[in-house]
Amino acid sequence: MTSRRTLPRTAAAAVVLAVAGSVAGCSGDDDTPDPAPTSTPTATATPPTPPPRATPARVPAAAACYRLTYRQAVSPTNGAPAVSCRQPHTSQTYAVGRVDNVVGGHLLAIDSTRVQEGVATTCPDALGEVVGGTLEDQRLSMLRSVWFTPSLDQAAKGAAWYRCDVVALAGAEDLVDVRGSLAGVLATTEGRDRYGMCGTASPGARSFERVPCSAAHTWRAFSVIDLDPGRYPGAQAVDEAGSGCEDAAAGVAADPLDYEWAYEGPDADQWAAGQTFIRCWAPDPA
């Protein structure tokens, strides 16, 4: 007979636990199972915050139109929204550029005299290239150049532009509603008649008001006489030069033996503002 040894039930259980413990990788002398392993979270690097980006200073559109009042048109800054140039408007932008505000490595304030005087020269000088005609045509018209620069807040954010607009005066403090573009308008007879400088009376009359020739009028500025540049020549010298308008008026009068004429000469303030010429006036035969 073959004998067989039977282990006690309790001993067999101990062997099983011992094997199970070795498979689980447990150690120690006791038979108490280790706590369940825990996982350690892996640290994730936070990407660096990108540096703030400066917003580019907004520059006006180079060919926009606006509905400005006279007061807005003669202000140094303007924030009015643009309108379609096909709609009635009073102001048309013809040039946009950057102001010259750095001198000797130093940044000048946008409202400094040097910056403002530079724009006040640049914009009027460029007007003729836009509206066309001769310099005399421009002086005998109601078209004027106005200009704008950024506000102090805009300049503090980096804005350094200038904007040149052309407007048509309807009177002393009013603007004409324009339809379409004023580009090249003084190169045509129709444009010179529409935007020419006329008056409700003789320039010397108390009732005189300057108006565009498309409005009701009786007199018209028809010629100019240039004066020598430099210092203001004085009222007497202006009067003497103004007498030259008499011969000019005879040349445009229907009857050279019976005609009227007048002239407008600059005073000291007008001279300082750039008017270094005399305007000759006569009744408008039209």
Report on the structure:
- The relative contact order is 0.10.
- With 286 residues, the protein is an alpha+beta fold.
- The chain contains nine helices and twelve strands.
- The longest helix is centred in the middle third of the chain and has 19 residues, at 113-131.
- Strands 1, 2, 5, 6 and 7 form a five-stranded antiparallel sheet that branches. It has a five-stranded antiparallel sheet with strand order 9-8-10-12-11.
Write the layout of secondary structure elements.
Blueprint lengths: L8 H15 L41 E2 L3 H4 L17 E8 L3 E2 L2 E2 L5 H19 L3 H5 L3 E6 L3 H5 L4 E11 L2 E2 L13 H7 L1 E3 L10 E3 L6 E8 L8 H8 L1 H9 L9 E3 L3 H5 L4 E7 L3
Antiparallel strand pairs: 1-2, 2-6, 3-4, 5-6, 6-7, 8-9, 8-10, 10-12, 11-12
In short:
The protein contains 9 helices and 12 strands.
User: If you average the pLDDT, what whole number results?
Assistant: 85
Radius of gyration (CA) equals: 43 Å
Helical fraction equals 25-40%
User: Per the principal axes of the C-alpha atoms, what is the gross shape?
Assistant: elongated
Give a quick account of the main beta sheet: strands, pairing sense, barrel closure.
5 strands, antiparallel
Unreliable residue stretches? 1-30
Number of helices: 9
Question: What is the terminal separation in angstroms?
Answer: 153 Å
Order of helices and strands: HEHEEEHHEHEEHEEEHHEHE
Task: Indicate the structural class.
Answer: alpha+beta
Number of strands: 12
Strand content: 15-25%
